[in-house]
Each structure stands twice: as C-alpha cells, then as structure tokens.
Amino acid sequence: MKITLKLFATFRNGRFKVAEQELPEGTDVRQVVLGLGLTEEEIGIVMLNGRHGELDSTLSHGDTLSLFPLVGGG
Amino acid sequence: MDKIFRVNMTDLTTKIEEVPAAWAGLGGRGLTSTIVAAEVPPTCHALSADNKLVFAPGLLTGTPAANSGRLSAGAKSPLTGGIKESNAGGTAAQMLAKLGIKALIIEGAPKTGAWYNLAVGVNGVTISEEKELLGLGNFAVIDAVEARLGKKTGVLTIGPAGELKMTAANISVKDPDSKIRSHGRGGLGAVMGSKQIKFISIDGEGAPGVKIADPEKFKGAAKVFAKALLDHPVSGEGLPTYGTNVLVNILNEAGGLPTKNFTVGQFEGHDKISGETMHDTIAARGGKVKHGCHAGCIIQCSQVYNDKDGKYVTSGFEYETIWGLGADCCIDNLDDIARADNLMDDIGIDSIETAVMFGVAMEAGILNWGDSKEMLRLLTEEIAKGTALGRVLGGGAGSVGRTYGVTRVPVVKNQGIPAYDPRSVKGIGITYATSTMGADHTSGYTIATNILNVGGYVDPLKKDGQVELSRNLQIATAAVDSTGMCIFVAFPALDIPECLPALIDMINARFGIALTGDDVTNLGKHILKLERDFNQKAGLTSVHDRLPDFFKTEPVAPHNAVWDFTDAEIDEFWNF
Ligand code: SF4
Q1: What is the dihedral of CA B166, B168, B173, B175, to 10 degrees?
Q2: Residues B202, B120: contact at Cβ < 8 Å?
Q3: Which of B59, B81, B391, B455 could form a disulfide with B27 if both were Cys (CB 3.0 to 4.6 A apart)?
Q4: Is the Cβ of B239 closer than 8 Å to some Cβ of chain A?
Q5: Ligand 1: does its nearest atom lie under 6 Å from the Cβ of B34?
Q6: Is the bond preceding residue B20 a cis peptide, omega within 30 degrees?
Q7: How does strand B154-157 pair with strand B101-107?
Q8: What is the pLDDT of residues B440-450, one digit of tens each?
Q9: InterPro entries in the record, alphabetically (chain B) (predicted)?
Q10: Mind listing the domains of chain B with CATH numbers?
C-alpha cells in the first residue's frame, strides 16, 4: 500500500518534508516512526488524515500521516 | 512599601497613595480588573473622562523569577464595551515593579485640546505638555524619548491609531532592543489617546528594587521553576526554535487554520508562511531565531526577522499575525507580512484585530484576496493617515463588517476571532464565546490540549469535555496573568508536577505568605466573576457569550465541522 508521510519541525532535519511511502499491509504508525530513526518519546503529535492518531493506529492505503515533535503554543 | 501612583488628567494633578488592604495581595490582571471594577462606571463611554487606564506589574515582576516581566494594562474596552486586560512584555513592567509602583492609574481627561506626556520616576509622576512627538509612529517616539531622557528610559507609547482613538489601537512597550511589544487587544491605545497622553516615560534611577521576604526559599523555588521551563519540550525547545509560528503547519494539518475569512480550514500556501520556512529564512539572513521580549525570559519565543539584505524588519513576529495576514487573507508572501507587522507596530494598531479586519475587508471587496501590496498601502496611506476609510479599517473587523454590510464577520463581543477555527477546534470556541475579554485565545488556550497533547488530550472535533477544559484553563490563566508570568509557562505547568507548586512558593517567599494551590484557583475564579459582573453591568450578558451565526450554518472543510453547542451548553461554563 501507499501512504503520504509528512514530517514537521526538527523531524525534517536530514530527512524530508513530504514523501510517498510504499509499506506492507498492516503497518502501524509506530513502525513508521521507528523506521525513520525516531523514538516514541520524540513524537509529540500524530495526525492521520487530519485527525489525531496513535502510535498503534494501523495505516491504510491512501492515508496521509503527519508527524510532529512536541512543539508549539501561540 | 509599594504605592499606587494616580494621575488625574482633568485637573493635571498627580498623587502617591498607600495600597488599600484589599489590593495588597493582587497584581497584574487581578489588580487592573479589581481597580477598573471598583472605580469605572460600567456604562460609561470608554473614551470619556470616566474611564481609567490602569497599568500593573505582576506579583512576581521585578524579582529574578524566570519569565515574570509582563505588564498588565486594563480599562473599559472601547472595542468590546466590556472590561479589558491586555498584557505585554518589554522593559516597563520590571522598571515599575522595582520603583515600588503597584499600579499606575490614569483617570479623567483634559478639558482642552492639549496633549501631554507623563514621566514616571521614584518621586512620582510629572505631567508635561507634549507637542514635538505628536503624529509620530512608535519607533520614532521611542528613539526621540531615548534621545531626550537616555537609553535606559522605559517607554509606553501610542502611534497615530491611538491618537485618532481607533478602536483597534494598541499601546506599545519598548523592549530591551528599543523595539516594540504591545498591549495589543481591545483598543487600549484609544483609551490612552482619549486621555491625550502620547507617551509615558519611566526613569528607573534610584529604584528601591523588589524586596523578597524569604530570599533562600525564593531561590530554591526559582530554580525548580526555571528547570521545569527548560525541561518541557514546548517551552524548552519548540518555542525557542520555531516561535509560535510553528502552529501554521500544525493547524493546517488539523484543518483548523482559518483561511479566506474563515471559509476553509486549510491554506494552500501554508508552507511558505510556516514556522519551519520562517526559521530557515531568519537563519539564512542573519536574523535572530530566538529572542526574549523582556530580560529574564528563558523561553525566548520571539525572534528578529530581517529582509533579504539583512536589515531589521520586525520582531515578535507571532503566529496569530502571520496566520491572519497570511491564510485568512490568502497571502503567501512572508516578507510582505513581516513588513505589515512592522507597520502595525509603528502605527500602533493591534496585529490580530487588524489581520482579522483585512480578511473581512477582502470579503467586502475593499481589496482583492491575496493583495499584500494594497494591504501595505491601506496601512500607510489610509489607516496611518486617518482618512475616512482608514478610520473604518482602524475600527477593526466588526467596524468594516457593519460599514460594508458583510455577514461573515468573525468577532465575539466585537473583538476579532484569532487563528484557530472554533468549528474544528471546539474547545477554543468555548473560550472565544465565554471570555470576559471578547474573542481571545490566550484567555483559555485549549489548543494545548485539543491539538498539542499538552495537559492530556481532548478531541477537538467533539463537544465532550470542552466546556470543562476551557473553564479550567480560563481560571488558571486569570491567576497566572496576575503573577506577571508569560502565559507560556502554562505548558510546563500542565505537564510537570513541580512547576506550579514552585510558582506558588515563589509568590509565598516574595511576600512572606502561605498561599495554597486552592487559593490560587480561587483567585482565578474570583477574577473571572468580577470581570463578568462588570460586563453584565455594562450590558454584556450571556446573549453576548455566543459565536456569530455563520459558524453554525457554514460547515468548514476538510472536516465539514459546524459549531454545534446549544446556548445552554455554553452557559454551563459559568457554573462554578
Ligand atoms: S516566551 Fe515569548 S512572550 Fe513569553 S516572555 Fe518570552 S519572549 Fe515574551
């Protein structure tokens, strides 16, 4: 399956802003996070198709996954 | 001992008074709101001699406590018609606190057309007629006052917008770099203009400083507090690196970034105006990525933004401004937005109200969507010059909506709704609706919990838990706004258990008292109720605790969310 993976803030350093990813069926968010060389603790916000997701959320074909470190405040 | 400095602009006299016992335990917002509620007739015209402009440093301002240098300004607001407290950084708060000034109260209004300046010093306030600096922008006023009175002088000033008594006018505060921070919201610059005061200078010479009752205990608590600020990922790393503008991309992903005057929740040009892009641009042009609005700020969410040639354009360049002129006006040119930010500082007009106003002005057809050049022209040629059109624009979003017959006008209590769509981030909608200040995100920042996973998580798209979340945050914020603390200390306070007790310990050590957590919560509740009581007497009732109709009838993409709280559900807020 294909998903769109978007990275924000410091997660972009040495990586990318947005990329299409080919993943095996049943992949969850945690596997994507670890695959990027990030740790669970570093993840501030997971967004799956514009809604808050969990590390355990299972991905489906066509999903957009956005990962943010803990940042922000206005 | 701390004193109250009182200035009467009707008979041009000044007084130094003892602090009444009832005010002794108050500072910042708690004190400005108490004084306004006690001394200003709620039904008075906000620009009349009956209104009073009150400045008060917070309970911890002037101490070595991190991030404690914020100044509260209060009055009846000419924009909302209700009570107003607006707080800002800059150098003034710490100078006033060290001079032992608990509050500066400015009352009355001159009987002639003459304008004045106030000079505040250790021996009191001097009123002098001012001619030379009238009509000047805030940057020129600060330069001139420094040339007259010395580089260290503190300055509170109004620009042309305040002189013209525009209801979006703000009060500028000199920052440590002789640039500007603002008491932005609610038109307090117009109140200062109605008193015919162009600027207030502060001379710190001979200031006795702030006495701490138990220095050892204070030191210990201050250390724990500072550590919590630096340890939390938001205040310790996120804010200093990307500033508040990191929110552009987050809100865009969440579908809560109000775009094209609140018709959509995502903006195509988001990346060009994002915190990430801004960070790289600032770094490449030799600006400053992090910067504090006052000495003692260790979070440093501010920054200095330079142009292509490395020349200063603006600082304190906030998410709300960038969102408003950017997404809400469909402008994706960050350099033009930065220039507009600088112009708004100079003219002395609130950058949130003005940004929301431009979205309404575009809807009204006064200028085209995305036309940043015309926006800059309207700022310099119409608003700054006080033309008839400029005065309509300078009255804010509500003023333009009324004048041009626009129905999609994002305001509550006539104050512009900032940077988070209340349909897709419902907690903040409760804050906008119920805040005593009019639409104000800072008064109960549910974004922390709705979007940023700070202090837990409450789903932004559902109604459950939002009223309680907003209530708890508004109560806590009213208390924090009384300490002189920057509201961003709330991020560590929500997540790190030692943070809030350390803050209370610092207050206790400063005054030699023994407040508990409950006392602080009760103070927050008391302030909100006092402010609401003033508003009700001024004619703002629960009927005004409502969002504009279009939020109920126009679903916002991408979630197609609508504002679906009943009136009774909103009114539950006040059940405490
Ligand atoms: S964190 Fe930002 S707003 Fe708060 S005190 Fe520091 S510079 Fe000012």
Answers
A1: -130
A2: yes
A3: B59
A4: yes
A5: no
A6: no
A7: unpaired
A8: 999 999 999 99
A9: Ald_Fedxn_OxRdtase_N, OxRdtase_Ald_Fedxn_C, W-dependent_AOR
A10: 3-202 (3.60.9.10), 240-421 (1.10.569.10), 422-495+515-576 (1.10.599.10)
Q: Do B239 and A73 touch (CB under 8 A)?
A: yes
Could you tell me which chain B residue has the CA closest to the CA of A51?
B254
A26: closest CA of chain B, how far (Å) = 23
Residue-range domain boundaries for chain A:
2-69
Tell whether B488 lies on the interface with A, counting CB pairs under 8 A: yes
User: Which of B103, B127, B100, B101 lies closest to B115, judged by CA?
Assistant: B127
How far apart CA B352 and CA B394 sit, in angstroms, is 12
- Tens of pLDDT, residue by residue over B476-513, are 999 999 999 999 999 999 999 999 999 999 999 999 99
Phi-psi region of B188 (alpha: psi -120 to 50; beta: other; left: phi over 0): alpha
- Taking the C-alpha atoms of residue B142 and residue B434, their distance in angstroms, rounded to an integer, is 37
Residue of B nearest to A11 (CA): B276
Rg of the Cα atoms in chain A: 11
Question: How many CA atoms lie within 13 Å of B251's alpha carbon, on the beta-carbon side?
Answer: 37
**Cα separation of the two ends of chain B:** 35
CA of B105 to the centre of ligand 1 (A): 26
CB B18 within 8 A of CB B5: no
CB contact under 8 A, A72 and B249: no
Asked if pLDDT for residue B267 goes beyond 70, the answer is yes
- What is the distance in A from the centroid of ligand 1 to the CA of B321? 16
> Collapsing DSSP states into helix, strand and coil, what is residue B308?
coil
Q: Alpha-carbon distance B474 to B537, whole Å?
A: 21
